[in-house]
Amino acid sequence: MKLMQSGKPRTLSWDEHAPILIFSDACYERDAKDLVCGLGGTLLDPSTGLKLFFSCALDSPQRAILGEMSKQQIIFEAETFCAVLSYLMWIKKLTSRNSTLYVDSEGTKFCMMKGFSENATVDSLRAIFCELEVAAETSCWLARVPSHSNIADMPSRGIVHELLDAGYIDDSKLAAATIQQLFTFLKLKVRQKAEC
User: Fold this and answer.
1) Do strands 20-28 and 98-103 pair parallel, antiparallel, or not at all (unpaired)?
2) What CA–CA distance (Å, rounded) separates 99 from 20?
3) Is 11 within a domain?
4) The domain containing residue 105 runs over which residues?
5) Which of 83, 124, 178, 196 gives 24 a disulfide partner, CB atoms 3.0 to 4.6 angstroms apart?
6) How many domains does the chain have?
7) Residue 67's pLDDT band (boundaries 50, 70, 90)?
8) What pairs with residue 100 in β-bridges?
9) CATH code at position 174
């Protein structure tokens, strides 16, 4: 409702290029010794041949923001965070283009499609995604991909050699910087919701 009132009208235009494909995935194992919460994403632009990926992990304070201190499991939050992170970090490449965003969570897919989640953290992330999509004037198709078919599953677990061998460029430094930016946005959204 807020976007309809404040946003500019959407421009519908024909994109002659094949859609940009983005795959995102997160893993979360609370008792893991090394990688507790990993994030991975890939971007493939069939029109230009551009192939990018990122592989990174959330530290303890970041996981706490997603609710780790009050929940046994934050995979829903992590999956949604990773999907929005992928979109935010590659937003310049998505401007005025069609894209397909594959996520590995039905909950993430449906909350981003319907524009609402009862989970306050996920709902705030969903709101950020909606604002990004409007600002970039892009059309994003959301779909779920199971882990065994998800090219982002390996980088979410820190395994990147196959992507490098396939010619993907490591964009993990940009992901690390964008994570900080996204947490800033997330804290702001949560604060705004609390004030309402």
Assistant:
1) parallel
2) 5
3) no
4) 18-186
5) 83
6) 1
7) very high
8) 21, 141
9) 3.30.420.10
